[in-house]
Amino acid sequence: xxxxxxxxxxxxxxxxxxxxxxxxxxxxxxxxxxxxxxxxxxxxxxxxxxxxxxxxxxxxxxxxxxxxxxxxxxxxxxxxxxxxxxxxxxxxxxxxxxxxxxxxxxxxxxxxxxxxxxxxxxxxxxxxxxxxxxxxxxxxxxxxxxxxxxxxxxxxxxxxxxxxxxxxxxxxxxxxxxxxxxxxxxxxxxxxxxxxxxxxxxxxxxxxxxxxxxxxxxxxxxxxxxxxxxxxxxxxxxxxxxxxxxxxxxxxxxxxxxxxxxxxxxxxxxxxxxxxxxxxxxxxxxxxxxxxxxxxxxxxxxxxxxxxxxxxxxxxxxxxxxxxxxxxxxxxxxxxxxxxxxxxxxxxxxxxxxxxxxxxxxxxxxxxxxxxxxxxxxxxxxxxxxxxxxxxxxxxxxxxxxxxxxxxxxxxxxxxxxxxxxxxxxxxxxxxxxxxxxxxxxxxxxxx
Length: 448
Known about the structure:
The structure is a single chain. By secondary structure, the chain is an all-alpha fold. Among the domains are: 24-78; 324-448, no CATH class. It is 69% helix and 0% strand. It has 18 helices and no strands. The N and C termini lie far apart (86 Å). Keywords: Membrane, Transmembrane, Transmembrane helix. One of its GO terms (cellular component) is i-AAA complex. GO terms for molecular function: misfolded protein binding. The chain crosses the membrane at residues 57-81.
């Protein structure tokens, strides 16, 4: 609705052609473009008051829109400074931080792989120029971030190359350090440089000892090796043997370090080794790799060790499921030759292959039932989706074991329960798998 033409100012000269009143859109555009003092003047002038009287709803809507734009802009500024000026950047010298900000901007906010890679390389070159330690967590963190970004853009081979180079560097440093320690030729640590004249003295951080650095780099190497195993096993790469090799190295290195510490004790400043959860994760990953290769007799002891280290009830049920599967598929091996035989007292009394097979299946049945029991117990916050998954899979696995024992009627019930439970929790793939196994059974009228 146009403003009232009688609203001319008192200083209007007679005979002067009245200027058209500005539209609401034009007035708001002028307010946004002008500086704050001009915007305040426009808001207070009589024309704005007239618009408010004639079109209050439109005016208020426009004001709300302007306030919304300002709020969004303020929020963007807040997020920008909280992200790009957070500790993850300010811990680097400013030239490195600037290059990293640009790299992450072109990685996540305005994707441009060529420019992102350019600034990542620039950041690493600047780390050299600034004299940063190649093996510091800050510099290695940049390389790990580059690998993660390359994986994100599906450049898997380049991601693998970055991590392989970093793994090789960590291994070489540890080897040289261990050799020097054995020969007694480790150089003395250089004290931290004194602040330059005029610079404020900052609290001096203790220098990292060689043994502490060895622990940090060895743990980093184990983690990188496990990540490489995941990349090699990815469907876009499918290098199963290389994946398995990286897992074997990670687990052997982890266990060898635990054994060394137990035998020789901690060195001065050495620090703690990997957490039980991290060690258990490596063991489980290697066990899964053995399962994928149908080497169930090698997977079993690793799953048992991972179970001993596990603290999460729902994940314990997952591990019990894997143990049940490994027992059910365990090959017939001479008593005492398989690692798990030392845990099975009945292995001493097996008189035939049939008895050995029956013993494996009985163990598989027990562990599948244990998985169901443990997956059903957690309540409240302790219950995670893993419990539902473990329960459904354990029911299906138990059905398979019962079918192997010739108990088809009991197996049918477990498959039906597994399919129903899977659908209840929205796990359609598990339901289809249980129904497929159900269809493989002889008809219900057949003799069980």
